[in-house]
Design brief:
single chain
């Protein structure tokens, strides 16, 4: 949908229904991505330091499955209520801007609801992602020192760079928009509004475009397989013969 808009420089079809569902799907997918990464960043501490907790069925459901299920269910329901079912006449949409000018009624007319969406839904997960990954690096190093284990600074540096890279993707994509969005609710509706619309909101696309490549760096065996497959002409062949 964004690519189609950038190609035509106009929202087609130019209807309120199309803008409503476009924002609904995009907001839901963005929040699902944020919440999943935030929950996984917290769960990584359990996998590293207390993996035996997940051997107990009840704790496994409460600490692992339920949070992941919540990340998938909450965003579509939340935005279905405040975007699709929110009473509005649909005349606020801007068809000459990407995502119809982000002119959802709750963002324009409900300061409390829009602040909740910006701070709790978008800002808090980004901060959790950053803090959880940074703290994990320090906890791993501290535990090895406590056990008087040999610390491989090369491995720790690689782990730190990988985790900080994931955190930075979300920080770059969301924190500038969080600052401008909250400023528009607290200071003035025009606070960085044009800059946000022209530049900052496009930073969110950095998350979905770059995150797969960042995550691939966490899987060295996958990288070797890809390199072997595409750069070395590696092809899996099955030998067929009589039995």
């Amino acid at each position: 949908m964004p690519i189609y808009f950038y190609h035509n420089s106009y929202v087609i079809p130019s209807t309120a229904a199309y803008c409503t569902w476009w924002t609904y799907f995009e907001y839901s997918l963005n929040l699902i991505s944020e919440l999943l990464m935030a929950v996984i960043s917290i769960q990584r501490h359990i996998f590293v330091f207390q993996p035996r907790l997940l051997n107990i069925r009840l704790k496994r459901y409460v600490m692992y499955y339920f949070p992941l299920l919540f990340c998938l269910i909450y965003p579509p329901i939340f935005y279905l209520i405040i975007i699709v079912f929110y009473p509005c006449d649909g005349t606020q949409w801007v068809f000459s801007s990407n995502l119809c000018g982000y002119a959802n009624c709750y963002l324009l007319y409900n300061k409390m609801l829009s602040s909740f969406a910006w701070v709790i839904n978008n800002g808090l997960p980004s901060i959790i992602i950053f803090l959880a990954n940074v703290v994990l690096v320090f906890r791993v190093i501290q535990q090895k020192r406590h056990r008087q284990q040999l610390i491989s600074w090369k491995k720790q540096r690689r782990m730190a760079l990988q985790l900080l890279a994931i955190s930075s993707v979300y920080m770059i994509g969301w924190i500038p928009n969080l600052i401008s969005g909250v400023g528009q609710r607290i200071i003035s509706p025009n606070f960085l509004a044009q800059i946000q619309l022209d530049y900052l909101l496009d930073l969110i696309y950095i998350v979905c475009l770059s995150l797969p490549w960042v995550c691939c760096r966490l899987l060295p065996e996958f990288n070797k397989w890809i390199w072997k497959l595409f750069c070395s002409g590696y092809v899996i062949r099955n030998n067929v013969g009589p039995t």
